[in-house]
Specification:
Blueprint: E1 11-17, E2 22-26, E3 35-43, H1 44-54
Antiparallel strand pairs: 1-2, 1-3
Length: 65
């Protein structure tokens, strides 16, 4: 590897569970049980910006009733 090349940035997936809670997960790794990909894939900051826009009610789905 050329030492002048920048290291590749880890890519992430936006994931959500059945309680509608969001997180990010490194691409290429199996998702934990109960989580599914539900948004953009890209650099960490981009994925976190997406979560900030869509996750407006931080309460778990079961607590919103």
């Amino acid at each position: 590897m050329d030492s002048s090349s920048p290291p590749s940035e880890t890519q992430y997936l936006v994931v959500r569970n059945d309680e509608e809670q969001y997180s990010i997960w490194p691409t290429g790794r199996p998702l934990p049980d109960g989580w599914r990909s539900t948004g953009p894939q890209g650099p960490k900051a981009e994925c976190l910006r997406h979560i900030d826009q869509v996750w407006t009610d931080l309460r778990p789905l079961s607590a919103r009733g």
